[in-house]
Design goal:
By secondary structure, the protein is α/β, with parallel strands linked by helices. The protein is built from seven helices and five strands. It has a five-stranded mixed beta sheet, sandwiched between helices. It starts with 15 loop residues before the first helix and ends with a helix.
Length: 197
């Protein structure tokens, strides 16, 4: 038998998008775009000057271009995801990885290894594929600077490096000390404000 309990208070919710916008705006008030790459999804969010969401895109159908994609491909190289980003920085002449499907990317990486490409070049190519996909999402939301890069993948040195290269050296990209906490920080700010209303 299912027993229902009535809470003595109203339960309020906030969307991930709004939480990330609030967190990014609180940390970097001049931010106009947020890029959040987490373990399971990627979000590109356009903000106005008050930190409100104007438009957003979210990749939530599969792990392509997310932390899970990097984790899965790192396993092909028999290393953890933290090492994988540093290792990819050693790449010099990366081939182009066309597939962002996790399974197909693994097959493509294995095929490139069989063709004799250095593993560090393939690792760099996989990181570049993530960044290309991400930049396409950012452009569709009307990318404006400064950009806040948040989520656990913002800790990946190769992704940070490739993102800056793809956007150009003059692009202002902010990264918090703990980029994976940006959304949680925004949610806590919203909760504090909601409780005081």
């Amino acid at each position: 038998m299912v027993k229902s309990i009535e809470l003595p208070y109203e339960v309020k919710t906030i969307t991930e998008i709004k939480a990330h916008a609030l967190g990014a705006h609180a940390l970097f008030p001049d931010a106009r775009t947020v890029l959040d790459i987490g373990g399971q999804d990627t979000k590109a969010i356009a903000l106005n000057d008050k930190g409100r969401v104007l438009k957003f895109e979210m990749n939530d159908r599969c792990a392509a271009g997310t932390g899970k994609f990097l984790e899965y491909t790192a396993a092909v190289f028999q290393m953890d995801v933290e090492q994988f980003g540093k290792y990819a920085l050693e790449g010099i002449n990366p081939p182009v990885i066309n597939s962002m499907c996790t399974v197909f990317a693994e097959t493509e990486a294995t095929s490139l290894m069989a063709q004799g490409f250095p593993p560090s070049d393939i690792a760099l190519a996989l990181h570049q594929a993530v960044v290309r996909r991400t930049c396409t999402m950012l452009k569709r939301t009307g990318l404006e600077y400064p950009l806040v890069f948040s989520g656990g993948v913002a800790n990946n040195a190769c992704i940070r490096n490739q993102l800056q290269q793809e956007l150009g050296s003059s692009a202002t990209v902010y990264i918090a000390d703990q980029p994976d906490m940006c959304g949680a920080f925004g949610a806590s700010l919203w909760a504090e404000q909601s409780c005081s209303d």
